[in-house]
Design brief:
The chain is mainly alpha-helical and about 150 residues long. It contains 7 helices and 3 strands, in the order H-H-H-E-H-H-E-E-H-H. The longest helix has 25 residues. GO terms for molecular function: DNA binding; DNA-binding transcription factor activity.
């Protein structure tokens, strides 16, 4: 590998890491909203997973979306239930099945998180001109569509 290519790869790695670090700091509870202070970043991500898509989620769906083992979200779900953001329900036909959904408070928090994320994305987007926005979307789409194939 040429030294020029090695330098480019190092630069890309550093830029990705800096960008992700800045983005995660923006998403952390101290930057989001005072109304979310009682939530950890893991709890916020879990609320987002539960809130997207279908009303009721199985624990396995939540674990798969978060990229963790089946038992990992159990503690987080228990904390969210105690805080009043999440509801656990058993299936009437098959009592072994447990479904997780957001409470009314959880839905409000979900909407608040999505709104705040959209504001962050909008601020990032405003930095770029229209051609750069299109290029960014194209590049991120391309990387995203090939990511799993490249790293499987």
């Amino acid at each position: 590998m040429s030294s020029e290519k090695a330098n480019e790869l190092l630069l890309v790695d550093q830029l990705f890491r800096k960008l992700f670090d800045k983005y995660y700091k923006l998403e952390s509870k101290k930057y989001l909203s005072k109304s979310l202070e009682d939530l950890t970043v893991i709890e916020i991500n879990t609320i987002l997973v539960i809130g997207h898509g279908s009303e009721n989620k199985k624990m396995s769906e939540i674990a798969n979306t978060l990229g963790v083992t089946f038992g990992t979200p159990t503690v987080t779900i228990d904390r969210l239930i105690k805080k009043g953001y999440v509801v656990r329900q058993r299936d009437e036909e098959d009592r072994r099945q447990v479904f997780i959904s957001l409470s009314e408070t959880g839905v409000d928090v979900f909407k608040s998180i999505v709104e705040l994320r959209n504001k962050i994305a909008e601020k990032i987007f405003c930095i770029l001109n229209p051609q750069e926005r299109k290029a960014l979307i194209d590049i991120l789409s391309n990387v995203n569509s090939h990511f799993d194939k490249v790293f499987s």
